[in-house]
Specification:
24% of the residues lie in helices and 25% in strands. It has 243 residues and is an alpha/beta fold. Residues 100-222 form the Phospholipase/carboxylesterase/thioesterase domain.
Length: 243
Amino acid sequence: MKTIVFIFCCLFIFEGCASQSSPELINSEMEVVTSETLRYYLYYPGNYEVNPEEKFPLLLFLHGGGESGGNLKSVKRNGPPKLISGGKKFPFLILAPQNPEEKMWWNTRAVNRLLDSIVATNKVDENRIYLTGLSRGGGAAWEMAVQYPDKFAALAVVCGMTPVPYASWINKNLPIRVFHGDQDKSIPITESIEMVAKLKEMGYNVDFTIYKGVGHNAWDRAYENDELYDWFLAQKKQVPIEN
């Protein structure tokens, strides 16, 4: 696996008030440059080098809050990275970045720039880029599906949370699967129930799996089932349609 530091810079323009002597609205602007360092694991399938012309699907995995911080090995605690560490082999690339902020949400713009860089420098089939995340990473996966509706071929969210209005911004052609434990006390199952209900009301292709008697750790059941990866591989990106 490769561990590479990626720097993300973004530009924000703010409107504020300059110094003034009377109560009036003044136009102003300030350039603010921020940076994000994302460490990550990148998994290559065993046959990646066999055919130089062959392109491979890629799965973007976003971990939960417990794996955030400065120790990249923490990313191996759950999900596909854990399975890879245990010897499992996948037929596609897996990109697993680490959120460097223990108490902050994912910087999805930075993740998207990292993803674009990986796609540009590897043999990736851009019509078969898949997105998944658990817990805090599940919320980030919902956000990325909203912000980049033409990028992903399929989405799987495990015990994530999201504002229900997000449903109106997701590509209606995007196949979606949602997993949640009905005893989750960290992120209540109602988060998924309400989002799934809204998606179905709007005609989305969404499948909802509820794990009876399972708490917040719905990810072991979800990610250890090979059927999920077979489902991913069966999906190809379709052109977004207007909601």
